[in-house]
Amino acid sequence: MKGFYKMGRVVVVTFDENEEEKLNELLHFLSAKKYSEMPGKQNRVLDYGALKINAEYRSVESNGELVQLTNYEFEILYLLAKNPGRIFSKEQIYTQVWKEPYYGAEDNVMGIIRRIRKKIEPDSAKPRYILNVWGMGYKFNGELMK
Description:
This is Transcriptional regulatory protein. Keywords: DNA-binding, Phosphoprotein, Two-component regulatory system. Pfam families: Trans_reg_C (PF00486). By secondary structure, the protein is an alpha+beta fold. The chain has two domains: 3-37, no CATH class; 45-144, Arc Repressor Mutant, subunit A (Orthogonal Bundle). It has four helices and eight strands, in the order E-E-H-E-E-E-E-H-H-H-E-E. It has a four-stranded antiparallel sheet, covered by helices on one side. Strands 1-2 form a two-stranded antiparallel ribbon. The longest helix is centred in the last third of the chain and has 15 residues, at 106-120. It is elongated, with a radius of gyration of 20 Å.
């Protein structure tokens, strides 16, 4: 296939050579896969019961209410939530979210996590979702995944 252009719900596919063979390959691929199973089309909503995170629309719902998050708040929450149980150091969080070298900017990370907790946790003093791992960093509570 030479080009793949998507306009709304119309897909235009062009071929360089042997159109019939490429069309058969495409039809075989489409019949073998459900849309949701195609690469890059996995469910983009993380469901943790009362907390739902939609990556496609960059929205967060807590107890059925839409939660307003800043860009950095969403990026940190999504990073942790899409990797439940994995421990991230403050440095790892910073370099992945800010996409620049970490120069001891742990106050930025800690402050944003504190704000996220106030917005999504039933009791921010006793977090259920974003947990501290003493001396190591933070992790998202994977036991809450639906």
